[in-house]
Amino acid sequence: MTGWFLAFALAALVFIALLLLGRIPRSAREISAAALVLGLAGYAWQGNPGLAGAPRSAEPVEGQFDEKLAEERRNLGERFGPTGQWLILSDGLGRQGKTKDAANILLSGLRARPDDATLWLGLGNALVAHADGILSPGADFAFRRAMALDADGLAPRYFYGLALARNNQLQAARGMWAPLAESAPTDSRIKAELQANIARIDALLAQDGTAAP
Questions:
Q1: Which InterPro entries does UniProt cross-reference here (predicted)?
Q2: Model pTM?
Q3: What are the domain boundaries of the chain?
Q4: Is 151 exposed, middle or buried, given 0-12, 13-18 or 19+ CB atoms closer than 10 A?
Q5: I need a surface site. Which of 18, 44, 77, 86 has the fewest CB within 10 A?
Q6: For the segment 116-155, what is each residue's pLDDT rounded down to a tens digit?
C-alpha cells in the first residue's frame, strides 16, 4: 500500500505545484488533471507497488570481464593472426559487459576455423564470464574440445583447471594442474603459480578432510 500512497501523494503535489507555481489557466486544469490520472493508470497497469525493494551492490560480480585472465590467456596463447583478431574483438565486447556478444564472436570465428584450439579455449572462458563465473556444460565442452585439439598445450589445461577451481571442483582442478606443474620449466613463473595454486587446494582439501590424490 505504501507504493500507492506515494504515487497518489506525488500526483497531488504535482497538481498543486502546477496551480500555485505554474499558474496554469483554468481552461488547462482539467487537461492537467487528466494527464496525471492517466499517469496513475499507467502505473497501476505496469507498476508493482507491493514489490519489495532490491538494493544493488556496486561491487563487480564474478562473471564480469577479467582483464588479468585475458592477459594470462594472451601470454599463453596466440596474440596475432586470424585467431588473435577474433579474440581481440571478443575481449572488446567483454569489457563493455556484452558477454553474450563476446561468446558469439568466437562462435563466428569457429565457424571459419573449427579446429582452432585457441578459439575453443577463448569460447570456454567467454561462456564462463557470461554465466557469472559458473562452469556451464557449454563452457566445459569448449574447454575439453580445446584440450582434444591441443593435446600437449599448456593453456587449455591451465584455464580449464582455473574454471574448475573457481567452481569448487578442487580435486578435478588439482588433477588438471599437477601434471602441468611437473612438466613446466624449472624456475618459470607458470610453474611457481601452479605450485602455489596446488598448495592452496591441498590446504582446502585438508580442511575438508579430503586427501589429495
A1: TPR-like_helical_dom_sf
A2: 0.63
A3: 2-46, 67-167
A4: exposed
A5: 44
A6: 999 999 999 999 999 999 999 999 999 999 999 998 889 9
